[in-house]
Write a structure and sequence with these properties.
Pfam families: ADH_N, ADH_zinc_N. This is Alcohol dehydrogenase. It comes from Podospora comata. With 355 residues, the chain is α/β, with parallel strands linked by helices. The protein is 27% helix and 25% strand. The strands form three sheets. Strands 3, 4, 5, 6, 7, 14 and 15 form a seven-stranded mixed β-sheet that branches. A six-stranded parallel β-sheet has the order 10-9-8-11-12-13, with helices on both faces. The chain has a two-stranded antiparallel ribbon with strand order 1-2. Helix 7 (208-216) links the parallel strand 9 (200-205) and strand 10 (221-224).
Length: 355
Amino acid sequence: MTAGKKWILTGQEGYDTSLQLVDSDISTDQLGPDDVLVQLQAASLNYRDLVIAKSDGGVAGSITPNVVPGSDGAGMVVAVGSSVTGLGPGDRVITYLAPTLPPSDETALPGAAEIVAGLGQKVDGTLANQMLITQHGVIKGPSNLTPVQAATLTCSGLTAWNALFGVSGREIKKGDWVLVQGTGGVSIAALQFAVAVGANVIATTSSEEKAERLKELGARHVINYKETEDWGEAVKKYTPGEKGVDMVVDVAGNSSLVQSLAAVRTDGIICLVGLLGKFDAGTIPMMSALWRPCIVRGVLLGSRKQYRDLVRFVEEKGVVPVMDDVVFGLQDVKEAYRRMEEQKHFSKIVIKIEE
């Protein structure tokens, strides 16, 4: 395998300071029995990557010194160790963020400890030409997607899947009503998956241009949350009998939960999947929950079984993940981080990795 390049985090002082591009040279001689050597072809960014780069060991936790950042990636297997099963050279794979999760239980869900110990933080991630990873950190990718498209599924795709279909007996189905917030990766993936099963989607945004794109993707109604102060109540008015939505995919946490509680129907589900809002947005009034009895469910990524189910769903439904208009090269990773920080993107920011 030829030498390539990789980005490393020399610290957590922000991506401009801590991200460094260096040479990378991984050979098959370094393969352990449980390892897979992957030629990476694409990666995508998450808000997590920004937080890790600038948290200085705070809210995101510390890093392994000089770790390769990035958790989301797609590529081709070059070689496998002697104990690897189900994978071989030439297989197209996508990464799984939490490889330390015990492999004996495919239904096990990762918690905060597994996320912190995952790719791009404690274990080398995907912003590189080559990747040496345990077999438990990859699965076979969808046959209908390009590597750039498949690289969007690792975090936002799996998180959206877990939110919509992760509660047995309460999976989103045709005719249900779903609220998604904004145009980030999880929200757009949730919109696409919900539309694929025939659900009705209401979306929020602050941009008229993005509102049009949301409608093109299948959103039945779009609400500008900057122009509508009580947008949770506005959402409810679009639903049959004004009862509220069956599910909210909440990406902002403290700053949006009161509105999510206003939007959800009695005995509906609110999935908390992100913290894009302010951490100090105030206490959620207890009465907001008591007056709207519902399930409030935290979602961190998903299990390996859910990941494989997601791959089958994408193949069967022909879902093609939406990506940002700007595609970056490996050498342009700092610009990709900056685009995410400035929130100029739509859905997933992707990096195409050349050999």
